[in-house]
Amino acid sequence: MENTIKIAIGQVKVVPGQPEVNFEKIKGFVTKAKKAQCDFVIFPEMAIPGYLLSDLWEEDAYIRDCDFYTQKIAKLSKGITIIFGNVLPDYHESGNDGRLKKFNAAFVAHNGILEHTIKTHEPLYREFEDQRHFVSLKEYSQQIDKPIEDLLTPFTINNIKIGVVICEDVWIKDYRYNNQLLNPAEILALKGAKIIIAVSSSPYGLRKDEARRRNLDFIQKQLWNKGFRIPLVYINNVGWQNNGKNEFGFDGRSIILDAAGNQLFEAPMWQEGLFFYNLNLNSQAIKFENWEVKRDEVGERREIREALIQGIKEFANTKNIQNIVIGLSGGIDSALVAYLCTKAIGHEHVFGINMPSKFNSDWTKSVAAKVAKNLEINYQVIPIEDIAELLRQKIKLEGVPDENMQARIRSADILAGVAATLNHAVYTCNGNKTEILFGWFTLDGDGRGALCPLGDLYKTQVAELAVQINIDEGKEIFPWELIAPIISGDFIPVGTQKLVPSAELSVRQDVNLGLGDPIIYPYHDQVLRQWVEYRYNIEDTIQDDIIKNLGKKYFKTTKEWLTDLEKTWQLYHLAVFKQIQSPPILTISKRGLGYDFRRSQLPPHLTKKYLKLREKISYNI
Length: 621
Description:
In the C-terminal section; belongs to the NAD synthetase family. By secondary structure, the protein is an alpha/beta fold. The protein has 2 domains: 4-295, Carbon-nitrogen hydrolase (Nitrilase/N-carbamoyl-D-aminoacid amidohydrolase), CATH 3.60.110; 302-619, Rossmann fold. Helices cover 38% and strands 18% of the residues. The strands form 5 sheets. The protein has a 6-stranded mixed sheet, covered by helices on one side. Strands 6-7-10-11-14-15 form a 6-stranded mixed sheet, with helices on one face. The protein has a 4-stranded parallel sheet with strand order 19-18-17-20, with helices on both faces. α8 crosses α14 (459-473) and α9 packs parallel to α10.
């Protein structure tokens, strides 16, 4: 083994909370790597315990169980080097959470000898709560009064120095130490490392792979500019994990880059497997190849579709769900949920239920039946008007309370009842991100369900995904009349009627008259995306040219636009109490509702600057 090493990348599906299951997978992969005469077999960060465990990290008994498997893996390392992530406990001290002191560590086992390194950077943003539970190397260096440089050291295996870092250690742009950028890979290179191995557990998100590659490119370029010619191996896991409120996918896509930043290998997305690569440690490159972003909107929509299907499949598998019941209203959201569930668990296990009242048109009822036929799912019509009328007489309901009552009958009574008659069945919440942020749902009605598959997709994204599926399937899975009122394009057949999105809970929502939801989806989606994904305040939005131009398109006067903007800001805040009681969502954006985008129940606030801007704009009407 001179200049080339044979690497086995163990892109495992880590099962959170099941260390014995994960150990057996690792054991099986190690056996295969030995048979293939590999020098190294590498596994992801926290490959034994799982990564997103919330406060399970505070249970000492669980930590001891995970620690037990570290030694068991070391015993497997005769004739091979095993690199893997696990929790490292300090049984003599307490940590940041007041419990057993813990480190997020990477272990290197070779011929029964075990060494480790500690994660330098512990994230504390979005869904990441690592600093609550783990002591970082940066913090530890302060505790023992030693420079980080003294604690970061390569491992010498067969006369080759191996540098190992952990996940966030390659996302370094926001981390400083002694007023300088802290790059663990650079410290390891300075100490003679001939290869950098990054073990990771990195959740999926739209364009997340682009962000990962951008950060890896940054690391490689820093090393190149300092005169180091070092390849980088990045390992990620697959599967789904959750923090209670949000389901996060781990998409794999482990990657190997040469010293010049060229991609040598990438593992498949979502696929568990052991992948082999012969890596030459001597770089012949004379120029660093800057990586360029290549956006593909069609590819992104297909990626979202696959992520949602994988999420539903994993949700069903881990909870032993065999059948899924869907309220099939005749709208685009429920149609898309039905499609995704069909792909995830099979059409014979999906049950579409249409529950019309006197307010539901023949149009939407026929569309619901058409979608069920297209998908070949089980379909049943259960009218609710007799139940609704009985309650109207008993409680004297009218107006909005009457509308909410209909939604409650559909979910709490009909869908829950149907699910109870089936084996291992649940029903879904079909809400999208736009409507959840507006609070445009009934809390104990359509806001209920075991899972909300579309909870991280805005309404326009739902329509765009439906378009892509129709194109890819080569047939009209989703009737074009459902898509036409939300987005436009050449893909809409000429002469298509527009079936407006509508709850159909009163005569004020009569789709035959074009009456539907009080939301302008192409406009409001952009506003909400600014507030959620981009951390904008209403004072930022009022100055944004994109929003102002959309305002001119959809509102007759500036006053009308400002009135709607403030009403949206108010609803956005008032709806929080409903959002926090919504079902878990499949998180696919860079800021999903729940324990990613965390919100307190607070009244809307208009800043002084916004009020001045509003006065100035209003004056110029």
